[in-house]
């Protein structure tokens, strides 16, 4: 009996799907374990078609596992130990960035790999250095910017203000060095960066040569996602990760303590190039604003929406705040 065009088409599609399924099963055996991928969709249905920190944190498959974003396997590193193994111990091997059709036209330092990235990174570092960070000239620009910003607004607690008042003169120019005298303020800034980690699950890397992560062989070209959210919320490293608590960065005597799992800027070869600049800016702006203003939500407003908006980075919803000169 002759098959009609529709039947031929159905048989063809079914065979392709079966072949694809078998291929995926074969590829799965070469990768760390993870949920079974479907042809075409991979595990996207499991992730609700989004790379959200909540879905990736599920510890069903341990600290290293594979999820399939459509047809592409991504090896996810979960928790401080696994992320450190990827970003620090195998820093060089994981220094690539995957290029997807979505941003193939953009070739900035954020997205390049190999030789081009090395050149751009070296150039970027020269630029940052020429701004004079550490030699005070960038710090001076930030101080000036902060004094303009004081005309504007922000948010936090009386405890920070009491600490600032006790340590700094009202008109004294605030310098980054002052953080050492303001442990509580410094802890609040660190806790904000941890709790509201803006890059969510971090930025994917690509393996530039064959390597081994936590005992699993990983082939050159494999996409790896060191899940930064799982590090700054790792319950083995933070007393109460889901609570905003500056004590995470303070010892019992109120001294500031740095934490190894504080990695909002990532780590290793591709660590955020602007880390130092961001740290100086945040400290000087935040301290200047809180010295000059008390911030509160407008009368009648009961609460503000603390959910994030998922974009290239996590953003807050718009909200109104009153800045009352002190
Ligand atoms: C709170 C502020 C910031 C946070 C939390 C942050 C975080 C990050 C993270 C997680 C990465 C990805 C690193 C990786 O691949 O593992 C990154 C990369 C990068 N950041 Fe930042 N960043 C901040 C501010 C800045 C600023 C102010 C600048 C510029 C002056 C900057 C410039 C860059 C660049 C150029 C890269 C790409 C580096 C590379 O691929 O080699 N960042 N950042």
Automatic annotation (TrEMBL):
An annotated Gene Ontology molecular function: heme binding
A GO cellular component entry from the record: cytoplasm
Necessary cofactors: heme
Gene3D superfamilies xref list: Cytochrome P450
Keywords: Heme, Iron, Metal-binding, Monooxygenase, Oxidoreductase
InterPro entries: Cyt_P450, Cyt_P450_CS, Cyt_P450_E_grp-I, Cyt_P450_sf, Cytochrome_P450_fam2
Residues given in the record as heme binding sites: 272
Positions of transmembrane segments: none
Record GO biological process: organic acid metabolic process; xenobiotic metabolic process
Origin: domain of life: Eukaryota
SUPFAM superfamilies assigned: Cytochrome P450 (SSF48264)
Family under the similarity heading: Belongs to the cytochrome P450 family.
UniProt cross-references to PANTHER family, sorted A to Z: CYTOCHROME P450 508A4-RELATED (PTHR24300), CYTOCHROME P450, FAMILY 2, SUBFAMILY AB, POLYPEPTIDE 1 (PTHR24300:SF368)
The protein's name in its UniProt record: Cytochrome P450 2J2-like
Source organism per UniProt: Nothoprocta perdicaria (Chilean tinamou)
């Amino acid at each position: 009996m002759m098959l009609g065009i529709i039947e031929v088409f159905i048989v063809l599609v079914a065979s392709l799907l079966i072949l694809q399924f078998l291929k995926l099963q074969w590829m799965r055996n070469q990768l760390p374990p993870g949920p079974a991928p479907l042809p075409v969709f991979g595990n996207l249905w499991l992730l609700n078609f989004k790379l959200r920190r909540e879905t990736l944190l599920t510890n069903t498959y341990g600290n290293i596992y594979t999820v399939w974003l459509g047809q592409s396997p991504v090896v996810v590193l979960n928790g401080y130990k696994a992320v450190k193994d990827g970003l620090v111990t195998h820093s060089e091997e994981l220094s690539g960035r995957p290029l997807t059709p979505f941003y193939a036209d953009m070739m900035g330092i954020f997205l390049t790999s190999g030789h081009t990235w090395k050149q751009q990174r070296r150039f970027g570092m020269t630029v940052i250095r020429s701004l004079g960070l550490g030699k005070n000239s960038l710090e001076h620009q930030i101080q000036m910017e902060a004094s303009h910003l004081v005309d504007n607004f922000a948010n936090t607690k009386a405890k920070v203000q009491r600490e600032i008042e006790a340590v700094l003169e009202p008109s004294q120019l605030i310098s980054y060095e002052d953080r050492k005298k303001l442990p509580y303020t410094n802890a609040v800034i660190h806790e904000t960066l941890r709790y509201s980690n803006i890059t969510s699950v971090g930025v994917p890397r690509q393996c530039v040569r064959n390597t081994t992560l936590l005992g699993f062989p990983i082939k050159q070209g494999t996409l790896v996602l060191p899940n930064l959210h799982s590090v700054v919320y790792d319950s083995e490293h933070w007393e109460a990760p889901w609570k905003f608590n500056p004590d995470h960065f303070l010892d019992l005597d109120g001294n500031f303590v740095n934490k190894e799992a504080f990695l909002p800027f990532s780590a290793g070869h591709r660590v955020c190039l602007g880390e130092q600049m961001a740290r100086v800016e945040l400290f000087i702006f935040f301290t200047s604003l809180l010295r000059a203003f008390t911030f509160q939500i407008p009368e009648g407003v009961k609460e503000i929406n603390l959910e994030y908006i998922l974009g290239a980075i996590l953003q807050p919803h718009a909200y109104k705040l009153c800045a009352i000169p002190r």
